[in-house]
Inverse folding.
C-alpha cells in the first residue's frame, strides 16, 4: 500500500480517498471534490456510508481506500469506452481507467 497522509482526528476511521492530484488523504465528504472541476453535483454519495458500514460490521477490516470517479448526473451510457459527448471535461471511462491504474501503482 502507498503512503497515506493521516492529518485529522486521531480516532478517525481508516478511510482514505485518492484526490485529484493522485495523493491519498483521510476521506471526508464530499469525497468527489476536485475530481471534475465542472461537476456541480459533487456532493454526498454512497462511498463514505458504504465504507463506514463495512467498518461497523467488521472492525478489523483494516484500511479502506476510495477512488472516486463519479460525475454527477451521468448515465451508464455516458461511461462507455467509446462515448464521445463533448459536454464532459474528459472521457469518463478513460478517466476511470487512469485513476484505477494510479491506485494500483500505490499498492
Amino acid at each position: 500500500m502507498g503512503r497515506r497522509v493521516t492529518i485529522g482526528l486521531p480516532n478517525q476511521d481508516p478511510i482514505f480517498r485518492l484526490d485529484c492530484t493522485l495523493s491519498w488523504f483521510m476521506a471526508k465528504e464530499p469525497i468527489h471534490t476536485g475530481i471534475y472541476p465542472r461537476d456541480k453535483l459533487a456532493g454526498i454519495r454512497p462511498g463514505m456510508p458504504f465504507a463506514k458500514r463495512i467498518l461497523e460490521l467488521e472492525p478489523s477490516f483494516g484500511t479502506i481506500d476510495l477512488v472516486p470517479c463519479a460525475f454527477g448526473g451521468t448515465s451508464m451510457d455516458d461511461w462507455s469506452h467509446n462515448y464521445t459527448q463533448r459536454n464532459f471535461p474528459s472521457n469518463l471511462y478513460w478517466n476511470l481507467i487512469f485513476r484505477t491504474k494510479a491506485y494500483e501503482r500505490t499498492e
Strands lie at 15-18, 24-26, 64-66. DSSP finds two helices and three strands in the chain. The first helix runs from residue 47 to 57. The helical segments are 47-57, 92-106.
